[in-house]
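Q: What would this complex look like in 3D?
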Amino acid sequence: MKSVVLATVFLTCVVFASAQLQCAQKKPNIPTDWIDMASPCVKKMRGQIQEELKASMQYLAMGAYFSRDTVNRPGFAKMFFQSASEERDHAIKLISYLLMRGELTRDISHMIKKNLVVPKTEWATGVEALKDALNLEATVTKKIRDVIKTCEDPKDSSNFNDYHLVDYLTGDFLEEQYHGQKEIASKISNLDKLMDKHGALGEFLFDKKISGGE
Amino acid sequence: MRAFLIFTVFLAAASAEHCYKEIEKACDPTSNKADSTPINCNAKYGAIDGVQSALQKYVNDHIERSFEYLLMSTHYANYEKSREGFEKLFRGFSDSKWNTAIDLIKYITKRGGQMRFPEIDSEISSNEDYEMYELQSLAKSLDIEKTLAVEAHNIHGLAARRRNEFHDPEISSFIEEKFVHKQADDIRALSGHVADLTKLLDGRDSSLSLYLFDEYLQKL
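A: Here is my prediction, written as structure tokens for the whole assembly.
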């Protein structure tokens, strides 16, 4: 009798064990002294991820507009689609950096807004779109400088100057911003001069030129 | 009845030469520039107008999914989770959704359509959680892929209807070629992962199983 009871108990345990999958695992016990980013700086960095994605969506809308059949500016479209993917890559680079520093272990489900509203979807001319692009880049540059400022002097109890991140943002992100801005400004200059007397022809030729990746 | 037939034939002929007629008028030195701008010289034909809004929604869904997958991959890349295989799997899905969205926008404009982006600023609804256990995230991914595949079927269904305003073999063929087969592959691969991991986790200690399964995903 005793053995029957034991067998039943044993069987129940087996049934229980097989019904429940071991999805969860024990939380690892890892020292945290190496995680040294100041929280105001982390907050700014998280915000910047959203900013880069916003810029990416704006470029996507520009690409979509210049692809239209009746607009037909494949060179502009190609350039703006490329910029959209580049901005998305920047967001991913920022995420990777935070992960490398031991951040983003929690509360990431709401880090990205899913439907990012695009403020503008039509442009009268290529020059107008390029000018918007230059302003957009200038805004992003300013926001990166803000992140740098906060991460250099977070103004909290830690007083932690994040040399490595500041260097990364300056050497990598700002470097790319300033080069990119100059490039857009030069494009505006060339196209704007052409548009003065040869509007339609100027934009047509310019579009073919940039579609060749020049 | 005969008059009606003649009228129909005339209409059909007229619509076939819309652009030419407009251009003729625009080139006519006596016509007024304001009311002779051609409006029918576009790439539109077939059923793009009937299918366009479904395609636009499909683009926006791909963008949303690409952000969701980015969050899922981010979660597996943190030092506590440290699952490079899962990170790689979901990052791959995020990239492919993003690139597909761009390709779809190009396709809509190829057919003379326009892209419309969402106009309401909505955050990921508060009950959405992208910080999941490994098996849960595979299950979630399988559901996402199936939803997108069914949406592709619906667009295909729209374009395959035998009514003029919807029938468009070019669109249905595009959907078949670019979406449905790849979706079937992805869904099959994911369901295989779920089946494997479900078996592997049905034991006393899952930690080694998860470690090895993650290594397997890294090599895919």
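A: To summarize the key features: DSSP finds five helices and no strands in chain A. The CA atoms of residues 133 and 184 of chain A lie 8 Å apart.
Q: Very helpful, thank you.
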